[in-house]
Every structure is written in C-alpha cells, then in structure tokens.
Amino acid sequence: MTDKILNWGLLSTALINRSLIKPLRASSRAKVFAVASRTQSAADEYVREWKIPRAHGSYDALINDPEIDVIFNPLPNHLHAEWTIKALRVGKHVLCEKPFALTLDEVDAMSAAAKETGKVLAEAFMYRHHPQTLKVQEIVASGALGKLQLIKGAFSFTLNREGNFRFVKEFGGGSIWDVGCYPISYARMIVGANPLEVFGWQTEGQGGWDESFVGQMRFKDGIHAQFDSGFKSPLRAFMEIVGAEGVLRIPSPFRPRSASEIFLKRGDKEETIKIKGGELYRGEVEDMHAAILLGKAPRVSLEDSRGNIQTILALLESARMGKSVLI
User: Fold this and answer.
1) Could you tell me the CA-to-CA distances from 303 to 14, 104, 240 in Å, in that order?
2) Is the backbone peptide bond immediately before 183 cis, with ω within 30 degrees of 0?
3) What one-character DSSP code corresponds to residue 299?
4) Percent of the chain predicted with pLDDT > 90
5) How confident is the model at residue 1 (pLDDT cuts 50, 70, 90)?
6) Burial of residue 188 (number of CB atoms within 10 Å: 0-12, 13-18, 19+)
7) Residues 6 or more apart from 197 whose CB is under 8 A from it?
8) Strand partners, 72
9) Which of 46, 52, 43 is nearest to 22 (CA)?
C-alpha cells in the first residue's frame, strides 16, 4: 500500500491548480491524472496545455472516474461542501481549498461524510506544512518569547477583477473568507485553541461583502490577537508574535519562499533566523499522501478547520451586530 501511486483529479481548471501541479509531479507517490471543467472543450484545452492524461466535461464525471484516488477541490467557496461530500461518498479522498466551508452545518456534514466513508479529508492551508511555520511553532514552544501576550497579523491585496466570485456575498465573497482566514488560522495555531471572544468591524462593498475587515480575538490566559484583511489595500502579509521576553516577526507567513527569514528580538538584540524551505505546496501534498497511505493524521485536522470557520462566523456576526461575540 505504501508504494501505491495515487491518481489525483483536479475539480475545475481554477488558477490555484498551477500551484499544485508542480509539487504533485515532483512527488514519487502522485500522478496528475485528470481534470474537469464545466464543458468538455474547456477540459480538453486544459489537458493539452498542462499535459494531463484525462479530461472530463463535468464535475460528476471526474469524481465518478474509478481510476482517480484523490480529488483536489478548488471550486468557489460556496461549492466546497457540496462537491467534497459528493466525492467522499463515491470513495475519493479530498483535499479541499480554504476556507473549508461557509457554515458549521456544512463543516459537520463534510466531517460526517469522511467518517462514514473512512476517506481522508483535509483543508488546504499550505503554509501550515512549510518548514518556516514549523520553525515558528518550535520557537514559541521553546519558551524563547516568554508568556504569550499578543499576536498581530494582516493579509491584504488590491482586487480589481470584474465578475470575480470574491465579490459575491452568497458565494462566500469578502476579504475575511479569502485572506483574513490566514491570520485567524495562524493566531489559533500559535495559541493552540479557539478564541473565547471576538470583535469585528467591516467596510462593506456593493452587495454586502466585506472589502476590508478588522478583527480582535481574546484567547485564554490573557492572550489577544489583532488582524486585518482587505481587497482595497496594497499587498501586505505579516505576522508578529509578542511575548513577555521577546518578539518574533514573520514577514512572509502565508507564502514563505524556498529560503526565508524570520526575526527574533530579545532585549536589544535581534537575531535573523534563516530557514531553508521547499516548494510551497509540497508539504500539503505529502501530508495527504502520508494520511492516505500510512494512516497518519493530517496536520490540519477537521476539528481545527471547524474552529477556524466558527471564528470567522463569530467575527462576521460581531461586525453585523456591533458588539463582541462569545464563542
């Protein structure tokens, strides 16, 4: 079983596929086997461009292909739950793009389908598998920062693509679902728990989606977190972790390069820590392979994914109500 080559199917021709195809082809345990589009002609064109063996003219045809072992689901946010559950129920393992789902009922239904079928299901937060992130966790766990006090982060960029699903509230549009989920996930990972209370503010775009979001999270033991996300600001991505004895700065936390640097300041001395990483998406690919072939638990657990969605929903509720929300 451990030497099996897993055939992957790409559920749509989404742009994010380009980031996954290279690490899949670099893996000794995977083959990019098929892609689906809403039309056969679009799928045929895609497989010619990317030299993929098989093209399917519908999503149903892809998930029902008996030769496919793993489905990558990069569909728009509101379709994650529906097609993930369909794929699980026909016997496929699924790597689902973030955000995992848009409601807790959807998350619970996806988790239940994975449990019932015995198939591996994981959320594709690629940064969680990178050596830089693992090093950050190691530093925090070592006590080098002292007692944690504050975590700050941001992820914003300017989005001007007309007709993009990120501008449709019903499709899971808005900056918090698309990029705000990253600093939220990062803060929760560092603390190792969900926040106890959140407060959020949003600037709404036409249609009710948030074009910018600012949030605060209160965790156990007096730890707080602050973040912002947006579609109308320049590209910004960082995390800062503050403890009683030190500060750790991560300039590129969500898309770390193959060789990256983080900065640890204690007193008047700042240390530059160089980290040799690898292909950004390789870690999540190999994590899926280890879960499927070796029975290892995925690094991003279903409980973890549920906690992130619960936190996002609470922040959105707080922004609507204009008051803090307990979780």
Assistant:
1) 27, 11, 25
2) no
3) S
4) 91
5) low
6) buried
7) 217, 218, 324, 325, 326, 327
8) 10, 95
9) 52
Q: Is the dihedral of CA 84, 87, 93, 94 positive or negative?
A: negative
CA–CA separation, 159 and 24 (whole Å): 28
Name the strand (E) or helix (H) holding 83. helix 80-89
- CA 137 from chain centre, in angstroms, equals 17
Q: Which helix (H) or strand (E) holds 216?
A: strand 210-218
Q: Please tell me the distance from the alpha carbon of residue 198 to that of residue 72, in angstroms, as a whole number.
A: 32
pLDDT in tens, 2-33: 789 999 999 999 999 999 999 999 999 999 99
Q: How far apart are CA 175 and CA 172, in angstroms?
A: 9
Indicate the SS3 state at residue 15.
Answer: coil
How far apart, in whole angstroms, are the C-alpha atoms of residue 228 and residue 249?
Answer: 16
What's the CA gap between 310 and 316, in Å, rounded?
10
Tokens of 248: 């750790």
Neighbours of 113 (CB within 10 A): 19
Residue type, 107: V
> What is the biggest distance separating any 2 CA atoms in the chain, rounded to whole angstroms?
62
Tokens representing 223 are 């730890």
Ordered domains of the chain (ranges, CATH):
6-124 (3.40.50.720), 128-282+309-326 (3.30.360.10)
